[in-house]
Automatic annotation (TrEMBL):
<keyword id="KW-0812">Transmembrane</keyword>
<dbReference type="InterPro" id="IPR001902">
    <property type="entry name" value="SLC26A/SulP_fam"/>
</dbReference>
<feature type="transmembrane region" description="Helical">
    <location>
        <begin position="397"/>
        <end position="428"/>
    </location>
</feature>
<feature type="transmembrane region" description="Helical">
    <location>
        <begin position="266"/>
        <end position="285"/>
    </location>
</feature>
<feature type="transmembrane region" description="Helical">
    <location>
        <begin position="75"/>
        <end position="92"/>
    </location>
</feature>
<feature type="transmembrane region" description="Helical">
    <location>
        <begin position="26"/>
        <end position="45"/>
    </location>
</feature>
<dbReference type="GO" id="GO:0055085">
    <property type="term" value="P:transmembrane transport"/>
</dbReference>
<dbReference type="GO" id="GO:0016020">
    <property type="term" value="C:membrane"/>
</dbReference>
<protein>
    <submittedName>
        <fullName>SulP family inorganic anion transporter</fullName>
    </submittedName>
</protein>
<dbReference type="Pfam" id="PF00916">
    <property type="entry name" value="Sulfate_transp"/>
</dbReference>
<feature type="transmembrane region" description="Helical">
    <location>
        <begin position="128"/>
        <end position="150"/>
    </location>
</feature>
<feature type="transmembrane region" description="Helical">
    <location>
        <begin position="305"/>
        <end position="327"/>
    </location>
</feature>
<keyword id="KW-1133">Transmembrane helix</keyword>
<feature type="transmembrane region" description="Helical">
    <location>
        <begin position="170"/>
        <end position="198"/>
    </location>
</feature>
<keyword id="KW-0472">Membrane</keyword>
<dbReference type="InterPro" id="IPR011547">
    <property type="entry name" value="SLC26A/SulP_dom"/>
</dbReference>
<feature type="transmembrane region" description="Helical">
    <location>
        <begin position="348"/>
        <end position="377"/>
    </location>
</feature>
């Protein structure tokens, strides 16, 4: 009786939690769907691939990768950071069929990386760099979406690079857009932003998601001005492939050319995609975990496995390579998603929209979707975040600001690499300053110096220790204490032993306490290792 009652009670609790989460996951999935749709198409266009290839990657990223992933908020799909690689690869390999073979092979490499626990590299990105990357993406969204918000759509929707393929850059595109704006697009954008900001604050109206209302009003205004001098052009609207019948749908898919599997250039492209996609994914996962209000931690190795299987499926169906994408994931989080069901639903909506309502989807103005991304960008790069990082000190603030600027002025991976360089500089500087503590006592004319070494003394501390020892005056008693040290680098040990050997020439008596002749790098506790790897 007791066990049956307990099981029933647990079932009811799970049912309640699922129902409660779905109330947030379904509306947020619609937001991600609306954002992902033009991004998938824009990235496919910029990559020189069929438009449908971007949608395949979005659908597979939502349903397949979303189901397998351990992340509750991450959204996967085609990434702007891969467009240059994809464009060059399609041209160099000779055909799109050979390229998607490379995508499937890249997925296999990612699967192996996940199985051999390579995902732990994600734990080595400093918090200041990850926060800077998020703020940089937010600022980038604002700058990149402004032209689309005013109806100037010369650049593809979702571009994240500073230098654009149309010859403009991020800033010149905004200046150009000022003189070419569409009045209807501006009205739609402004109205959309006002709705997105203020509609959720009216509790009685929360049953209707603000982004859904934004799209409905956008379609209405576009229809109202259609045929007039103020009407929106086709370039200002979403444009997904329209097909007729089941045969037409199946005809959109492409199969890989397996006859090229022995070519070295195919494997080189596959390895390049696998490495870059894995790095973007690990960065994205780390960033989204920071945005998660519940502060859940994603198992990185499982994520690589999920991404690998997703890319294998996407490649086999003719789709683009995918990663965990910060823009879509941020929109998902800001829309209030609670579980991975939002990601899975967004992939389902992409598939159903393509099958059932392509003509209706093609009536959505890009200005509506730009407004959603503008609001998302503002939340990512809020002023409070800059104040918070400033209060942490210069060693956190400078890498943060450098990463923000580098992401905006280059691209995601280059920006993070530059931020990492600054972060490592401050890390090394801090590490070099703290290899020891010392205390000086005087007895008559004789000085006694006790040098207590830190817990970890690395090669980077060698110079500081050497400077200290060289500066010790003659006729001094020196005690070098290693009782706190778990590890002392061999080069530092050599410096200490050489100093002791030669110090007598200066009348210096050196005593070594708790210093071994050899140290082994301390190993992590097996339970900790298992937890990290999972």
């Amino acid at each position: 009786m007791g066990n049956g009652s307990s099981t029933s009670s647990r079932f009811e609790v799970k049912k309640y939690i699922l129902k409660k989460n779905l109330k947030k996951d379904i509306p947020s999935s619609l937001v991600v769907f609306l954002v992902a749709l033009p991004l998938c198409l824009g990235i496919a266009l910029a990559s020189g691939a069929p438009l449908f290839a971007g949608l395949i990657a979005g659908i597979v990223g939502g349903i397949v990768t979303g189901s397998l992933s351990g992340s509750q908020l991450s959204v996967s799909g085609p990434a702007a950071g891969l467009t240059a690689i994809v464009f060059a690869a399609i041209a160099s390999l000779g055909s799109y069929q050979i390229f998607i073979l490379a995508v499937a092979l890249a997925g296999g490499i990612q699967l192996i990386l996940g199985l051999i626990k390579a995902g732990t590299i994600g734990n080595y990105f400093p918090s200041s760099v990850i926060e800077g990357m998020l703020a940089g993406i937010g600022l980038l969204l604002i700058l990149k979406q402004l032209p689309h918000a005013v109806g100037v759509d010369k650049d593809f929707f979702g571009d994240e690079g500073f230098l654009q393929k149309n010859g403009e850059n991020t800033f010149s595109a905004i200046i150009s857009a000022v003189g070419e704006f569409s009045l209807v697009a501006v009205v739609i954008s402004v109205l959309s932003i006002l709705i997105l900001v203020y509609w959720p604050k009216i509790k009685k109206l929360n049953a209707i998601p603000a982004p859904f209302l934004v799209v409905a009003i956008g379609i209405g205004l576009a229809m109202a001005f259609k045929g007039t001098s103020y009407g929106l052009e086709k370039d200002h609207m979403v444009n997904i492939p329209v097909f007729s019948g089941w045969d037409g749908f199946l005809g959109l898919f492409t199969s890989p050319d397996f006859s090229a599997i022995g070519r070295s250039d195919v494997w080189l492209v596959a390895a390049t995609i696998a490495v870059v996609a894995s790095l973007e994914t690990l960065l994205g996962i780390e960033a989204i975990d920071k945005l998660d209000p519940i502060k859940r931690v994603t198992p990185t190795n499982r994520e690589l496995v999920a991404q690998g299987i997703g890319n294998m499926v996407s490649g086999m169906l003719g789709g683009l390579p995918m990663t965990s994408v910060i823009v879509r994931s941020s929109a998902n989080t800001n829309a209030g998603a609670r579980t991975k069901m939002s990601t899975i639903f967004h992939g389902t909506w992409l598939l159903l929209s393509l099958l059932l309502i392509p003509n209706l989807i093609n009536m959505i103005p890009l200005a509506c979707l730009a407004a959603i991304l503008l609001v998302t960008g503002y939340k990512l790069t809020r002023i409070a975040l800059f104040k918070h990082m400033y209060e942490k000190g210069w060693d956190q603030f400078i890498p943060f600001v450098v990463t923000v600027l580098a992401v905006v002025l280059t691209d995601l991976l280059k920006g993070v690499a530059i931020g990492m360089a600054f972060s490592i500089f401050y890390l090394l500087r801090t590490n070099m300053r703290n290899p020891f503590f010392y205390k000086i006592q005087e007895e008559g004319d004789k000085k006694h110096i006790r040098i207590k070494l830190a817990e970890e003394v690395s090669f980077l501390n060698k110079a500081a220790i050497q400077v200290l020892l060289t500066g010790i005056p003659k006729e001094t008693n020196v005690i070098i204490d290693g009782s706190n040290s778990r590890y002392i680098d061999p080069d530092v040990l050599e410096t200490i032993f050489n100093y002791k050997h030669n110090a007598y020439t200066k009348g210096i008596i050196v005593t070594l306490e708790h210093i071994k002749s050899h140290y082994v790098v301390p190993k992590l506790n097996s339970k900790i290792v298992e937890e990290i790897n999972n």
